[in-house]
Fold:
Amino acid sequence: MIVNRKPLTLAERLYLPAIVGGFRVTIRHALRSLFGGKTVTMEYPEQKWAVPPDYRGAPYLVKDQDGHTKCVSCQLCEFVCPPKAIKIIPPGPAGELADRPNAEKMPHEFEINFLRCIYCGLCQEVCPEEAIFLLKDYSLTGLSREEMVYGKEKLLALGGVHGGIQKWKHKLEEAKEQENFPVKV
Amino acid sequence: MSNTATTETKPAAPAIEKIKVKVDGRELEVPKLMPDWQGKLVPTTMIQACELAKTDVPHYCYHPKLPVAGNCRMCLVEFGTPALGPDRKPVINPDGTPKIAKSPRPAIACATPISPGMEIYTQTPGVKQMREGVLEFLLINHPLDCPICDQAGECKLQEYSVDYGQSASRFVEPKVHKPKAVDLGPRIVLDDERCILCTRCIRFTKDIAGDDALGIVNRGSYNTLTAYPGKVFDNNYTLNTVDICPVGALTSKDFRFQMRVWFLKETKSICTSCATGCNIIVGSREEKVYRYTPRENDAVNACWMCDHGRLNYKWIGRADRLAEVRRQTSEGRSEKTTWTVALNEIAEKLKKAPHGSVAIVASARQTNEEFWLLKKLADKFGALTDSIGYFGEGDKLLLNVDRTPNRTGARLIGICQANVGIKMMVIADSIKVGKVKTLIVFGEDVTKSSLDAELLGKLDTLIVSDILPNETTKRAHYLLPGCAHVEKRGTFTNIKGRVQKFMKAVEAPGDARPEWEFLHDLVYNVTGQDGFLTIEGLFNEMAKDVPAFNGLTWAGLGDTGVTVPT
Amino acid sequence: MNWNFIIFSVIKIAIVVGVVQGMVAYAVLAERKISAWIQDRVGPNRAAPPFVKAIPGLGPVLIRLGLFQPLADGLKFMLKEDFTPAGVRKVYFWLAPAIAVIPSMLVIAVIPFGSQIGHQQMVISDLNVGILYTFGIVSLGVYGIVLAGYAANSKYPFLGGIRSSAQMISYEISMGMSVIPVLLIVGNLNLSQIIGWQSQHGWLALYSPVSFIIFLVASFAETNRLPFDLPEAETELVGGYHTEYSSMKFALFFLAEYSNMIASAAMMVTLFFGGWTLPFWGLDHPAGNLGMGIAHILVFLVKMLLFVVLFIWVRWMFPRFRYDQLMDLGWRKFVPLALVNILVTAIVLWAKS
Ligand code: SF4
Ligand code: SF4
Ligand code: SF4
Ligand code: SF4
Ligand code: FES
Structure:
């Protein structure tokens, strides 16, 4: 469709009303921000941004309400992570046992490379143990590449406690109630 | 393929009658009899017919190499047979096809023999329902440990749950809890809660391994797998139960919590721990070998391998692997050098060596191609060659007394005699009298045999290629780091003369190069004979040259190898 | 040649160049601050050498005003990698920034920025054809830009260079013709004389407002500033003629643009607003003492700064012209208007005499 240009009026062709109008707008804003103190700038390090509730920040490992590592080193997050930011070293047969009974294992080392992480949230979604969550941290900085690789201890400390159903504990309690097992093996 | 090489050693089987059956409406001819787990001909079962029809029937307890138990009911299918009239004649439909009487009851495909004209239905709603029902029962007491279960990723229960499982359990009562992490033997951990009582492991240990160690106690939902009281589950084949266990009940202590299986790269290879040459799959990730698992080859190892061979992989990743080319300077210091420098210097020295002044000690762990290249060198100098044998106790199933993978190859190519090591004394004597001035050693610590350190000191040049450091490598004038079999490609000839190839799974550490590569360079430098820069070409060249291998080609070996007369 | 003349000239040159450079730096800051205010933002308010924070009271204020930002900017320009892309025509590529910068500095030489201090005239060179000189020199600036566009061997700079030359050449004509009425009225080409005339008869902007408006608009076009910044229209041409430049070479173009702006402001003050004079407090005749001399310089600077602010302010008021409109405005509106203006002025002057 061809839209015909409307011919300009004389006033428009003189540009004068436009000049006056432009000046009015700009001076109004300039005076307001100069003397009214009304600016839209958020002065970042001093003023912080209100993180929306469903914001996806940095993924951290969490502990359960008893302070135990929830991750069982199933390595699903390592598998699903699109940029391969996660590296898990499983405990192996001789490795330390999980710090809660019945869960059998927990990672020997768990690293997230925050230079690679794209905050997609797939690790949180895939985790069968609710052990990794994207929390609200958005400004991760470091002076070296190594510094940006967070280890297990750091991730756990940053992640804090996240309650939940504690299925391994329940299994243990349930098993204890079944002491009347016919033949002990 | 020439007439000297045959794929199977079996005598030609008598012709077996074929019968027509239909699987999901597709007609095919199947042999009336098929070999069972012992190779005996027995009536073909429905599951075998379905397999020939390329139709997958889910199953747990059935295993082609085990006696049939028929206890899991996962393989239930519907079927029909031609209807017979009162006159015992088949009833014919108006359109001329035989009328099929559909059996009112399903049957387990793993144990029901086929009959002529039988129709098997594996995709009907009824079959689907039965599979769902079986699975729901199996999952009633299953702990759903997948995040901490080593089987996850190769678990039949997981796979079939995806296909036929329910998203939520209807079972509200508490689950029966059974012993977890039971120490069943030195290499096996058992999780009874995960066991689905298929008895594959029991049948394997009893019938294949011949060690009646496992059984089931208690009744009903308390059924529990255990070792017989007072018996340790400790034969040389225990780890096979881990492979055949369809779930994560039996797990390997060695592989336990090492790596999730979906990360493992699978490479076809050969076990090097004895002369049987079991076919294996090497599971590796990021240049680290995590496990060996057997690979099916009916001419060699069926579906099994021994624990001895399976666990013999740790040395590959050892930190003290030789990874530098080194040479000894005139002052006797050892210094790092490059392949080019070392190979050129060796070639210079060898070219000047008089006839008969060179001896070669090869290792029976080397590949056929490497032997052939060494043989070329030996022929040039009229060198004495031999290898060293390693022997241990064998058993009736797989493990051979000969603990080297390729002594047969060495013999066929002419590196050693049938009586391996017989020339070692001759080599020692020739060194002693000063006749032999140059010794080439591949992959052996000769100081442990007749050539002690003092004798080695008398040599002008000692060229050693090895993988791990030892007394001989310490004394080498030229040290050439070689590769483990998982780091290169090549072929072995097993004790029965089966030539089998293996593939590369991981990268070699540091400067280490496959022996055939640098041997090829060396042969070229010394004799001027050019060969092939690929293992395929090299093998084909060798097959033309070595009478025993005539007619073989690399491609013709396939995944399972070819047997040559020995 | 007397030594006195040389020494004082050198001193004046040094001071003027220094002041202009400083003004350029702070014009950039002003640009950023003013644009921030117009757009409800804060503008540069962080950069400062470490010790400034320690000054009680004043320190934080200075930092918030961004007074140290120009230093940081300068430092940044110097430390950045000076990258010469492969495939450029090296000699021209290196020459172009210099050619752009030099004319803009040279123009300042003939502008009287004050009356006199002692016996020294506050002008580097009191040329009697000052106006002709400025037009001559200003038109050289276009070579830098054309050369930059050509030497970069890249299509955006090339388009930028072409546009720029067309635009500058077009507007030079109306600019030149807009000044002719002024010359007719004053009857002299010497800029000091023009100021002298204004101190007696009043500002020329009142005598010839049309000339002033044409001159004003044309100088926007001459300095490549919005609404006529087509040569470097970011949205269409990436960066225009200086797309391929980096580090100090890029900074030189920046310098040229802002010193052009300052030179234009100075020209306008001189030609139309009485230069260093003010019609009251006796500021309208050459200074007799040091105080008055300095006051004259200050008057000149204040007037000039007002124009600089105008330049900056306009940039944030208007959208960019379309290229055809720009040409249309230059050739079909301003050239006839300027001609008519000359004619009318001449007739009026003839009638009066
Ligand atoms: S958020 Fe995404 S990218 Fe980051 S660690 Fe998790 S899966 Fe990987
Ligand atoms: S964080 Fe979750 S998904 Fe990742 S290894 Fe641990 S348990 Fe598995
Ligand atoms: S046996 Fe299979 S289904 Fe059961 S926990 Fe292990 S992986 Fe999961
Ligand atoms: S341990 Fe495994 S192989 Fe043995 S009975 Fe149980 S599920 Fe079957
Ligand atoms: S596979 Fe047939 S019953 Fe188990």
